[in-house]
Amino acid sequence: MGERDSANEIDEAAFRWVALLDREGDDPKLLSDLQDWLNQDPRREGAYLRAQALWLKLDRAANASEQDAPAPALSRRRMLVGGAGAALAAAVGAGAWVLSGGRNFDTEIGEIRHVPLPDGSVADLNTQSSLRVTMAKSIRRVRLAEGEAWFHVESDPSRPFVVESGLVRVRAVGTAFSVRRFDHGAEVLVSEGVVEAWVSGSEAAAVRLAAGEKAMVQERAPILSETAAPAEIDRKLAWRVGKIDLAGETLSEAVAEFNRYNQREMVVKQQALLSKRFYGVFRTDDPEGFAKSVHSSINVPVEITRDSIVIGR
Amino acid sequence: MVGSADRARRVAWVAKEVMPHEPAVRRWLARSRVPFDQIDDFIQEAYCKLSALTSVEHIQRPDAYFFQTVRSLVTEKIRKARIVSIETFTEIESLPVLSDDPSPERIVAARRELAEVLRLIGELPARCRQVVRLRKIEGLSQKEISLRLGITETMVENDVVKGMRLISGALKKSGTVDVVRRTLRIYGRARLRKRD
Questions:
Q1: Which pTM does this prediction carry?
Q2: Domains of chain A
């Protein structure tokens, strides 16, 4: 048998790779070096997978400690931070927030939810969204696990307000903005003040976005920011009052938008119709009203049943 | 596949569905007289198999799958080895009985592991614990942590590695500590021989 690295040596190297990638982000050079290392011994592949899973597990443990607070070591230290008196006062003041360390908020399809946060900020959750809010001593942290939310942030320079959406991070001090999660990134719209957005691990490449600006922040592409058309941000946030505000969106975009809010699926049968543009304000829960106005404005058949709405023939 | 979304899903699946059963697999290997240094090898090779699967959606019982994967690695090795203890072979052939129900055992394993990880974080050396806490609970980046604590980024990275090493080591032990004595006693007798 030739010389083999011991299992411990391999584990150690795998931890090093995880820590390094956590520090540097997904640098292509680093990833290719990692691949070279992995290719040399099948056990390395296994050790690396286990190391990544272990690293992820620490997240789960952190979340569990916020949820159940069963961990004597952690909660004891949390109590010591401000002294028992402060902790007691806080516990009386904010109740479950302090005791649990965080809370989840979810919405179903079509549901829109207004959530006042204990620091005076507000979160509005759009359809099919999931949010976890943690108010720690030095950071107000919000994890957008799914969907879209708009935030009005109460100013507190000592406690930044950070939204995490996958690898995307958006930080605000006192401002209003929304974040919508996509598979490989997030869209950020700023309606007041200034925010900074970046991808975890490459904070140096953060972009500043001011009121009226929007950006698509992708996990592995440069951040594209631009000034939104006048009123575009307000229009895009019309969901907060239960509306879809179309100003020249294509039928394809409009249908996708209605389908976000409704179980009943809207389908367009004729390819040629998809690029037609539409204007008007509709209720998010009224795809039928939209379909009827499509019918009357471009004179195409619309078939409305309990389960679906079919536009075109 | 290293950086892809599929990979991220695989890692999450392993963390949630497989790793909580690692202590049980280690206990079973130790009971079967597999020497400690080889247990680590088998475990790593098993994770490697899981990493190479194109899909894990068909796996209904990740715990049973993990046991089977390790078992086939061990039996393969036994067949290649010159000298084999019959005892080892029969023990390794008898897998722990796993019920088909959405078993409370599996849920318990996950909860137990989570509680264990939490306890272990609490027991890390002070700065290391602080780094892990800031990174994982407060969500600061390594760079932000280095600024906050006034230490270099390399020190932060080293603490991350150290935290993982200590927690990983303790989790491994939690699987085998109760059979250490018995295994040490029979260690020499039933040891698997490597091929030259």
A1: 0.50
A2: 7-94 (no CATH), 103-232 (2.60.120.1440), 242-311 (3.55.50.30)
